[in-house]
Design brief:
mainly alpha, Four Helix Bundle (Hemerythrin (Met), subunit A), two-stranded antiparallel sheet, 2 strands
Length: 182
C-alpha cells in the first residue's frame, strides 16, 4: 500500500516519509512492528489533538510533557474518540493495538502474535484497508489494519493543520447584561 499525492512539496515529503515507515515496519519482527505502530499512532494522536484544540499553553500542558493528562496512548485514543476525531472502528482497532502493545512491552520473552490471547485480539481487528477489508490473519492482518489507520490519522491531522478541516469550536461566552434578582 502506497499513498500518492498531488499536494505541495512539504506534504509530499511527509507522505513519502509515511510510505517509507509503513514499508520498513512491515519487514520488522512482530515486537518491533507492534511497538512501532503503537508509537507512531500515539505521536499522531498527540499531534491531532494539538492541531484540533486551541493554540494555547493549556493545550500543550494537556497533551505534551512528562505528566500530561493526555500524554499516553490510552488517554489519547479515548480523547480523540470522545471528541469525534476518530471513528468507532478506528477507536476499536487502536484499543486492540494498545492491548497487544502492552503484551509485547511488558514481557521480554515468549510473546507472539500466535499466542491464543493475542491471536484472539488480532482477530477482532476490523481488517480495514484502503481497498476494503482483508481476510489476512496474524501479523499481516495487524499490519494491514494499522497501516490504514496510521495513514487515515496522519492525513486527518494534516488537514486540520492546513485549515482544510475544522478545529474545536469556540462555544464559550460571557454572561453580561443579565438582570440581577433581589
Amino acid at each position: 500500500m502506497e499513498i500518492v499525492s498531488d499536494s505541495p512539496n512539504e506534504e509530499r515529503k511527509e507522505l513519502d516519509a509515511l510510505n517509507r515507515f509503513i514499508k520498513i515496519i512491515r519487514e520488522q519482527d512482530e515486537r518491533a512492528m507492534v511497538l512501532a505502530f503503537a508509537t507512531f499512532i500515539e505521536d499522531t494522536l498527540g499531534r491531532l489533538l494539538v492541531a484540533y484544540f486551541r493554540d494555547c499553553k493549556a493545550t500543550k500542558e494537556l497533551v505534551q510533557g512528562f505528566s500530561a493528562p493526555l500524554g499516553t496512548l490510552g488517554t489519547r485514543i479515548k480523547a480523540t474518540f470522545a471528541f469525534g476525531l476518530v471513528t468507532e472502528e478506528q477507536y476499536s482497532d487502536m484499543e486492540i493495538l494498545r492491548k497487544v502493545r502492552n503484551k509485547f512491552a511488558h514481557n521480554w520473552e515468549g510473546v507472539s502474535l500466535e499466542q491464543n490471547d493475542i491471536a484472539a485480539l488480532v482477530g477482532q481487528l476490523s481488517g480495514h484497508t484502503f481497498v476494503g477489508t482483508t481476510d489476512a490473519k496474524g501479523k499481516q492482518r495487524l499490519a494491514d489494519t494499522m497501516a490504514s489507520c496510521c495513514v487515515e490519522l496522519f492525513l486527518f491531522q494534516a488537514r486540520i493543520e492546513s485549515g482544510k478541516s475544522a478545529k474545536a469550536p469556540d462555544v464559550s461566552h460571557r454572561l453580561q447584561g443579565i438582570p440581577r434578582t433581589k
